[in-house]
Amino acid sequence: MSDTSAGLLQVGALIAALALCYRPLGAHMARALSSEHDLRVERLVYRLVGVDPRADQRWTVYAVSVLAFSLASVAGLYVLQRVQGGLPLSVGLTGVEPALAFNTAASFVTNTNWQAYSGETTMGHLTQMAGLAVQNFASAAVGIAVAVALVRGFTRSSTDRVGNLWVDLTRSVVRILLPLSVVAAVALILMGAVQNFSSGTDVTTLVGGHQTIPGGPVASQEAIKEIGTNGGGFYNTNSAHPFESPNPLSNFVENFLLLLVPVSFTRTFGILVGDRRQGYALLAAMGAIWASLVVAVTALEVNLKGSALQAAGAAMEGKETRFGEWASTLFAVSTTGTSAGAVDSFHSSFSGVGGGLLILNMGLGEVAPGGVGSGLYGMLILAILAVFVAGLMVGRTPEYLGKKITSREMKLVSLNVLTMPLVVLIGTAVAMSFASTRASMLSGGTPHGLSEVLYAFTSAGNNNGSAFAGLSANTTFYDTALGLAMLVGRFVPIVLVLALAGSLARQQSVPRTPGTLATHTPLFVGLLIGVTVIVAGLTFFPVLSLGPLAEGL
Amino acid sequence: MNATAAQLWAGLRMLVVMTVLVGLAYPLVLTGFAQSVVPGRADGSLLEQDGTVVGSALIGQSFTGDPAYFQSRPSAAGDGYDPLASSASNLGPESPDLLQLIAERRADAAELDGTSPAAVAPDALTASGSGLDPHISPQYAAQQVARVARERGIGEDVVRRLVEQHTTGRSFGFLGEPRVNVLELNLALDAQD
Description:
The complex is a heterodimer.
Chain A: H1 3-34, H2 40-49, E1 57-58, H3 59-83, H4 98-109, H5 119-122, H6 125-155, E2 161-163, H7 165-191, E3 201-204, E4 210-213, H8 218-227, H9 248-272, H10 276-302, H11 307-312, H12 324-337, H13 352-363, H14 374-394, E5 399-400, E6 403-404, H15 407-432, H16 435-438, H17 447-461, H18 476-506, H19 522-546, H20 548-552
Antiparallel strand pairs in A: 1-2, 3-4, 5-6
Chain B: H1 3-37, H2 39-42, E1 46-49, E2 52-56, H3 96-113, E3 135-136, H4 138-152, H5 156-165, E4 167-168, E5 179-181, H6 182-192
Antiparallel strand pairs in B: 1-2, 3-5, 4-5
Helix pairs in contact in B: 4-5
InterPro entries (chain B): KdpC (IPR003820)
Pfam family, one (chain B): KdpC
Family (chain B): Belongs to the KdpC family.
């Protein structure tokens, strides 16, 4: 079979696998998030946490709950890293330094999983599984909760209640993320991903060298790392590491898991708003962007658009033999289109323009298909912007899903759209302004160096977590600045989205009229894609032209 | 206790409950499963030679300096294939350093294998993503057959047959790329002697 046919079949198989799960998983998630019935284990959780599951919250209380849980999480994870040396399973590692511990706590709680450390020499097994992996579940559950609260804004009317965070959180973990993770982890274990508590096996190699083969509860963490679109690898090289992803099948499964929940969540959305076509429309926009980028990035790689790619005769720098070019580019587009940031190859060595497209994919706000929960609420923000633009064209008050988009909603949407670019561009500008912070660039003085810094802040501001990893990011400046970028890039939009949910829920639903813009048609999908690309394009084109475009063209 | 403090207290308690459920119970149960069903894989697919563990089938090794062994890809993990320092080079597509490395590797590999510089396999010129890539391409393996046979004083057909035995095709015919496991191949060569 030719390389191209095999590559196209991989893409086709991925789409087919997602299509198979789309309806059942979408329906399951809709039931889980709207059911009136609590499972026994959930009732136990509510009792232990001390909350009343039937008490719906106003948006402000819901937001305070999100922030309170996240603050407790940051504090807990920070302390665990600092004291790990005195705890069991530390495999000889000492406490993590303060700036790095803050950065990592912010990173995992915000679903970013930016890693300024190398897992195998920094984090003990207990920190990994009882600290980092817990936030893999928790941050994904927060994403789902916020998304479903926004959906309630559309489905409820004349109420100030948007749901109960503790219930949404608990159900997301117990009914969605944990069962999926168990199945995925079992599959990865059978494929050969490691799962042990070894502190390392010392071996003498065939030619008399020395290796320490690391251990760890990897497969269990790998599963939720992908399913929760977290992306924080157990080891430094993430899903390129053979212990995280031993073969092409495990790579395929991990790529599938990255996309599974965000894609199926559009079905959940369609069911909850009572019109499945609305879910298809969002999915169509997400899928079109994803597919275009897969085609573009893959074409740039296999056609060797870069001096080093041509010199080597293949785009294999930073890529694993068992995956090759096609599986690596497919993974790269999937991981930058979600908030995952897991990598099976190293983006810094991709073609110049290809690397720029990966930055742009994050800069779109990660909506193709986006992170768990955050992809849906990100896309809904853009959908509201799209109906507003359409409303301006024809001079009608815009409506979406039966709710009027008034100046209050548009203010919240505009602030939301502006937050991430501000974080990214100001952060990049500050980092490029000082010789000491420029010194972290591996490719200082070249367009690629700017791309390294731009990638870092785009990744942090969008809660992605992947990197042009040549940047030496474990400095006090980058640990702090990127930590703040992650927190602002996560929680300011979340509070704005919840405010939007509250504002929408208070409204009466307006009946459809013949003049109402249909938001399930190809026309609207085209408009939505246009708005998505134009907003991000206008924001990021200038800086992309100085970095990746200058390098690649 | 005011409302915000109550939320913080609930948040802290939720964190503890989740830690017990998904931070302890979940990985422990899966480790129990892995260790009872596929202990060899769960422990990292370790390989033995004469009863001694010499490495992992999933973690590449450096064979630099011993031409009787098949050589692995270049590695950016520490001094090369250091499993505690997994890393890619992260050098960019226009990096002068990377271009120079590729030129040097091409010249070295061509000299070692007695082949024309233009014929050197791309994976012999590029560092992998993990720096621990256990595989090389069938093309790079074929390039090394004559040298290994000569160094070991065995027939090229014997070596070629071993390469074939340690070559894995694409999964289901289309996933990933064909590849040769270097450590397993070299262990098989040693077992021949």
